Amino acid sequence: MMDIVEQEMISRIRAGDEAAFEKVFRTYAKLLHAYGYTLLNNSHIAEEMIQDLFLKIWEQRGVLQIHTSLKAYLYRSLHNDCMNHLRHVKVKKNYEATVTKDGSGVKQHQPINRLEVKEIQQKLRSGLSKLPEACRTVFQLSRFEHLTYKEIASQLGISVKTVENQMGKAFKLLRVELKDYLVLLLLLVLITAIF
Fold it and tell me: Considering only the top CATH level, what class is 104-194?
C-alpha cells in the first residue's frame, strides 16, 4: 500500500513537478538498474530500459495511476518491459534461424507463400469485421493510423482506460480468430519491421 509521502510525490509528478520526478529517478534508478541487470544480464540494455520507463512515466504523467507502492509499480513495470524485450529477442533469434545463406554467404529469406499471405489478410479482415464497432475503431486508430492511446482517447472523447480495455478486447478476439496463423503473421510483422 502506498504511504502519504509517495502519494504526494505522485501527485506532484502528475502536476508536472520536475523536481519530484528527478527525486524519484535518483531514488530508484540504481536499484532498478541492478534488478534489470539480473533479468537481462546486460548493463547497457538495462540502463536503456530504465530510461524508457521513466520517459514513459513522464510522458504519461497526466494519466498516471499507481495503486500499489511506487517502488512496487516501478519494479513491476521494469520486469514487464524486460520480459517483453527477452521475448522479442527470442522471436528475432527464431526468425534468424529461418534465414539461410546461399553459396556466396548472402542471407536468403525462406519465401512466404503468396497464398498464405492472402489467407492471413482474409482472416485478419474477417477478424476485424467481427469486432464490436467501438473496439474495431480503437484498434484501427492504434494499429493502422499509429495514434497513441491518449490521442485516441482525445479523438473519440473517451478515457485512456477505455482505450486500453478496447485494445485488450480486440487482441483477445483477434488472437482467437487468427490462432492458426500467428506464426506466419509474426514472421510477416518481423520482415516488415526489419526491412
Answer: mainly alpha
Choosing among 3.30.230.10, 1.20.58.100, 1.10.1740.10, 1.10.10.10, the CATH entry for 4-95 is 1.10.1740.10
Structure letter (DSSP) for residue 110: P
Task: Report in angstroms the alpha-carbon separations of 92 from 68, 95, 189.
Answer: 34, 5, 11
74 contacts 28 by C-beta, under 8 angstroms: yes
Out of 105-119, 127-141, 149-163, pick the least confident. Answer: 105-119
Torsional sign, CA 137, 138, 140, 144: positive
Predicted local confidence at residue 175, as pLDDT: 77
Flag whether the pTM goes above 0.90: no
